[in-house]
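To close the section, here is one more complete example, presented without commentary so you can practise reading it yourself. The ligand is 2-acetamido-2-deoxy-beta-D-glucopyranose.
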Amino acid sequence: MAFTVKPSTLISLLVVAIALLASAAPSAHAQQFPGLGGGGGGILRNIFNLFRIRGTIFCSLNGTMASDINGTATPPFGNALVQLRCGTNVITASATDPSGLFSILMNPLQVIMSTLLNNCNLMVVTPLTSCNAQLPSIGRLFSPLQFNGSSLLGFLNIANLIPGGFSFQLPQPRE
Ligand SMILES: *[C@@H]1O[C@H](CO)[C@@H](O)[C@H](O)[C@H]1NC(C)=O
Ligand SMILES: *[C@@H]1O[C@H](CO)[C@@H](O)[C@H](O)[C@H]1NC(C)=O
Ligand SMILES: *[C@@H]1O[C@H](CO)[C@@H](O)[C@H](O)[C@H]1NC(C)=O
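Output:
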């Protein structure tokens, strides 16, 4: 699979890498994953240097590329702001590119894997009307996160996370 990153992404990657090299001894890493010791899921016990959350969002009520009745493909949802939320906290955000692709890189020191998988969601903040005026102006696309294996980038062990599946939700009282 082609590895495409924007220069700005590469720079933040390097910054994170340097910061990790400079500051973190292996034993300090291990202490960042207190919740992952017990039970199965051996791969989750690996020590990751980066979390990479990537996905593609399409302009539809479930964010997928369903074709309509005439077989016209749903366009991607470009320029959409995607927030990573854990509980009600916005941890970080990223905008989709014109092909609907977004990518979020996170330092594992910020949040642990079990929290990401159990307590965090992706929320598309930009209303669906901005890509299709016939879609609802209220309500947002939400998705939980799913672990999709790890990959090596140089000396970095990257945990790949993807949207588990977007669904449309009307505003929550606290939103
Ligand atoms: C998304 O919605 C379309 C129609 O609105 C449906 O055909 C498709 O199965 C849905 N996809 C998922 C993953 O729910
Ligand atoms: C499908 O094509 C027909 C005929 O061109 C058109 O009237 C209809 O609006 C189209 N439906 C959709 C969902 O685009
Ligand atoms: C999940 O990982 C597999 C194997 O690396 C890859 O082929 C697939 O494209 C990934 N899925 C997504 C949605 O990125």
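Once you have examined the tokens, check your reading against these statements. DSSP finds three helices and eight strands in the chain. The mean pLDDT is 79.
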